[in-house]
């Protein structure tokens, strides 16, 4: 799977951890930054990762920050991107099953490294349920 990844300074450490994890799993990862823990403006990095999904250059995106809120907001401004802010395996699974989330947002200050990797794995492997959920996604796409 082709995965775009991006973070701000507060999510940089987990971005690097998750990037390595994805490579070990055999995924093709494109890093859209940032490149350090120095303070930066997250929209500058999150938007290109989300746009890669919208253009079909990436199958999915993972965005990271301190809380993950701002990153999810930016990603969700890009038409065709459905970004789920996840803090548990269950929220990641539901984001995929019910919302066909093609973007995952995680807050580095909210979850442990171990949990972050479990969230990523659940999000990568959980299928979309379709059915009534597709009807709702169609409604979202019409907004």
What is the structure about, briefly put?
This protein has 143 residues and is an alpha/beta fold.
Folded structure, characterized:
- The longest helix is centred in the N-terminal third of the chain and has 13 residues, at 12-24.
- The protein is globular, with a radius of gyration of 14 Å.
- The protein has helices at 12-24, 43-54, 69-76, 89-97, 113-125, 132-141, and strands at residues 2-7, 28-31, 60-65, 83-85, 103-107.
- It has a five-stranded parallel beta sheet with strand order 2-1-3-5-4, with helices on both faces.
- The model has no long low-confidence stretch (mean pLDDT 98).
- It has one domain (2-141): Ribose 5-phosphate Isomerase B, Chain: A.
- With 143 residues, it is of the alpha/beta class.
- It is 45% helix and 17% strand.
- Helix 1 packs across helix 5, helix 2 (43-54) crosses helix 3 and helix 4 (89-97) runs parallel beside helix 5.
- Strand 1, helix 1 (12-24) and strand 2 (28-31) form a beta-alpha-beta unit.
- The N and C termini lie far apart (28 Å).
- Homodimer.
- Keywords: Isomerase.
- It catalyses: aldehydo-D-ribose 5-phosphate = D-ribulose 5-phosphate.
- This is Ribose-5-phosphate isomerase B.
- Pathway: Carbohydrate degradation; pentose phosphate pathway; D-ribose 5-phosphate from D-ribulose 5-phosphate (non-oxidative stage): step 1/1.
Find the structural class using helix and strand composition: alpha/beta
Helix/strand order? EHEHEHEHEHH
According to DSSP, the number of beta strands is 5
| Largest beta-sheet details | 5 strands, parallel
Fraction in beta strands? 15-25%
Uncertain residue segments? none
How many discrete domains? 1
CATH architecture: 3-Layer(aba) Sandwich
Q: CATH fold name, please?
A: Ribose 5-phosphate Isomerase B, Chain: A
What's the CATH H-level superfamily name? Sugar-phosphate isomerase, RpiB/LacA/LacB
Computed over alpha carbons, the radius of gyration is: 14 Å
User: What is the straight-line distance between the termini?
Assistant: 28 Å
């Amino acid at each position: 799977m082709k995965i775009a990844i991006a973070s701000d300074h507060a999510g940089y450490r987990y971005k690097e951890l998750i990037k390595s994890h994805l490579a070990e799993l055999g995924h093709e990862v494109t890093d859209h930054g940032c490149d350090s823990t120095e303070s930066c403006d997250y929209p500058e990095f999150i938007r290109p990762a989300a746009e890669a999904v919208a253009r079909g250059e990436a199958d999915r995106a993972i965005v990271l920050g301190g809380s993950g809120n701002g990153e999810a907001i930016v990603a969700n401004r890009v038409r065709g991107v459905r970004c789920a802010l996840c803090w548990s395996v269950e929220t990641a699974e539901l984001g995929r099953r019910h919302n066909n989330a093609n973007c995952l947002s995680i807050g580095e200050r909210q979850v442990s490294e171990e949990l972050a990797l479990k969230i990523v794995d659940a999000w990568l492997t959980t299928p979309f349920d379709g059915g009534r959920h597709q009807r709702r996604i169609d409604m979202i796409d019409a907004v």
